[in-house]
């Protein structure tokens, strides 16, 4: 991420070009949400109908809210907490809207704690693949390895700590050319490998089973919880509702089109998730695995595929390295709302990064223990482990709630003249469509899904 100081800049600088904003935002969006989470929740909630709700949410709720976040960040040129306060002041409304920024920053801290744990698993898998652990592996041997990891809190802690240290290091160095270069190489490489994996999936003889699972819509499988999870995931995967995209928007040069950037980012993120689905589900069906087997889905299916591919150990190692890089570019954006706020308060980036890194690292320990020491029913709340509750609370409650408030803020609270000035949409129809989406469609949609889940409707 390279910054050049421009007039009209944030204290942190500006992205050097539009495509760097797109790269950074796509780097934030594309991560474990696409590769690890999307397939496993799609498996758990029954496939096609769930995918369709997710796609509808991306289109009608996620994209308009992403436009709102970028617009707010760029107008205020500040970290979300300060940005919302500044914008509230500009529009002559209560500064208490700043709470919205606080809520997002807190969500970031909570998400980072378990995100790092999962990324740690991926880091460990780099080593396992490089050692050729899965060569000629079967569904049973691969599953045994994964279960072995879950049963070993010390091992999980080691890799969680390593990943968190890497993330803190990058955030502390700030906007560094190394990461930008890594992202630039990573995205095309990851896409090439994904296509290769989809190609492999086509040879399993169960490719069409995967396609049917992902795209055949059976509404009878759509429980209120499935709808809530699909909506929550649209926020998680697009990095919305907690200010990550707002923080990045603060560094976006004024002359670039927000609408077109958002279109590109959302398209890349969605295409990426669907490709992962097309790679993973045929492998699931070809090996008689259970689509609903939960968070371990990618850690079982992918090693199985790599273990049976020519040069699979090498390709698999590279793939998991890329997954780790994708997770890193997301993790730094999860921390950015807090770090940018602390820096604006006068703290150094190093101290700020260490504070959020160390506190989320500590909280992450409880997610690690959710798979072993604290896995028993006596430790569950609402029938869920600590990790499941934290994931549920952040992804399905806090992010949509944050998104709701952002939509209401951009659509109702901010003065429209300011909004229009910042967006500078040339196409009137697109502007009106966006306006209707943030004022009515998105807030109403989010509310209905939540009330439906709570059984109020
Ligand atoms: N979008 C990221 C992913 O899919 C996760 C993320 C969530 C990033 C929230 C920033 C904010 O992996």
Brief synopsis:
It contains 18 helices and two strands. It is mainly alpha-helical.
Describe the 3D structure:
The chain has a single domain (18-453), classed as Amino acid/polyamine transporter I, CATH 1.20.1740. The chain is 75% helix and 1% strand. The protein contains 18 helices and two strands. It has helices at 18-29, 32-44, 48-76, 80-90, 98-130, 139-150, 153-173, 177-202, 207-215, 224-237, 244-249, 258-286, 297-307, 312-344, 349-369, 386-413, 416-423, 428-454; strands at 3-4, 14-15. Helix 16 packs across helix 18. The protein is globular, with a radius of gyration of 21 Å. The termini are far apart. Phenylalanine (PHE) binds next to helix 1, helix 2, helix 10 and helix 14. Phenylalanine is lined by residues 28-29, 31-34, 111, 236-237, 239, 242, 244, 330, 333-334.
Strand order of the largest sheet: 1-2
Q: What is the distance, rounded to the nearest whole angstrom, between the alpha carbons of the first and last residues? A: 46 Å
Query: Looking at CATH, which topology would you report?
Result: Amino acid/polyamine transporter I
Radius of gyration, in Å, reads 21 Å
- Tell me the structural class: mainly alpha
Q: What's the CATH superfamily, by name?
A: Amino acid/polyamine transporter I
Main sheet specs: 2 strands, antiparallel
Q: Which distinct ligands sit in these coordinates?
A: phenylalanine
How many H/I helical runs? 18
Per DSSP, what share of the residues sits in E-state strands of 2 or more residues?
Answer: under 5%
């Amino acid at each position: 991420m390279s910054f050049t100081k421009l007039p009209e800049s944030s204290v942190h600088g500006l992205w050097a070009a539009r495509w760097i904003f797109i790269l950074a935002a796509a780097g934030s969006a594309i991560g474990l949400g696409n590769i690890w989470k999307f397939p496993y929740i799609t498996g758990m909630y029954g496939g096609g109908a769930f995918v369709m709700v997710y796609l509808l949410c991306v289109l009608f709720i996620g994209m308009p809210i992403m436009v709102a976040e970028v617009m707010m960040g760029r107008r205020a040129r500040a970290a979300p907490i300060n940005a919302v306060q500044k914008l509230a002041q500009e529009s002559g409304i209560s500064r208490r809207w700043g709470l919205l920024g606080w809520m997002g920053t807190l969500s970031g801290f909570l998400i980072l704690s378990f995100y790092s744990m999962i990324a740690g698993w991926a880091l460990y898998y780099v080593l396992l693949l490089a050692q050729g652990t899965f060569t000629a592996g079967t569904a049973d041997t691969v599953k045994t390895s994964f279960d072995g990891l879950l049963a070993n809190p010390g091992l999980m802690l080691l890799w969680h700590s390593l990943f968190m240290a890497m993330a803190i290091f990058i955030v502390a160095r700030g906007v560094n050319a190394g990461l930008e270069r890594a992202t630039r190489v990573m995205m095309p490489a990851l896409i090439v490998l994904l296509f290769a994996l989809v190609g492999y999936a086509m040879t399993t003889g169960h490719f069409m089973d995967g396609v049917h699972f992902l795209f055949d819509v059976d509404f009878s499988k759509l429980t209120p919880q499935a709808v809530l999870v699909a909506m929550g995931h649209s926020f998680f995967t697009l990095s919305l509702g907690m200010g990550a995209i707002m923080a990045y928007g603060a560094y976006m040069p004024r002359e670039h089109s927000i609408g077109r950037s958002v279109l590109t980012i959302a398209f890349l993120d969605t295409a990426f998730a669907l490709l992962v689905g097309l790679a993973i589900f045929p492998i699931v069906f070809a090996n008689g695995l259970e689509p609903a087997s939960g968070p371990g889905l990618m850690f079982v299916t992918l090693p199985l595929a790599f273990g049976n591919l020519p040069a699979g150990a090498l390709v698999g190692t590279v793939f998991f390295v890329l997954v780790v890089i994708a997770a890193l570019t997301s993790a730094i954006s999860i921390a950015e709302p807090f770090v940018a706020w602390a820096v604006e308060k006068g703290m150094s980036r190093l101290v700020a990064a260490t504070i959020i890194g160390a506190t989320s690292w500590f909280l992450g320990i409880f997610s690690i223990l959710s798979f072993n020491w604290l896995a028993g029913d006596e430790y569950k709340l609402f029938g869920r482990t600590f990790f499941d509750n934290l994931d549920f609370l952040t992804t399905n409650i806090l992010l949509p709630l944050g998104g709701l408030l952002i939509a209401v803020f951009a659509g109702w609270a901010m003065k429209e003249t300011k909004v229009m000035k910042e967006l500078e949409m040339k196409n009137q129809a697109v502007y009106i469509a966006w306006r209707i989406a943030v004022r009515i469609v998105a807030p109403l949609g989010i509310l209905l899904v939540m009330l439906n889940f709570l059984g109020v409707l």
